[in-house]
Amino acid sequence: MPLVHIDLIEGRSPEQLKALVKDVTNAIVKDTGAPAEHIHIVLNEMAKEHYSVAGVLASDKA
User: Fold this and answer.
1) What are the contacts of 42-47 at 24+ separation with CB within 8 A?
2) What is the pTM of this model?
3) pLDDT tens digits for 25-46?
């Protein structure tokens, strides 16, 4: 049972998230042969205030 965790900064539409999980599922099916119904994907959306790069919060970037 493949289990995939994807961490994202919030702000994507439901349609974008649906496309993401579909594409990731299809890639795993293609590359591993695992049946789609056995593939689990967990999306974790973070607030921009909870993620930083090089000491700068994503919420502070233009």
Assistant:
1) 42/3, 42/4, 42/5, 42/6, 43/6, 43/8, 43/17, 44/5, 44/6, 44/7, 44/8, 45/8, 45/9, 45/10, 45/12, 46/7, 46/8, 46/9, 46/10, 47/9, 47/10
2) 0.87
3) 999 999 999 999 999 999 999 9
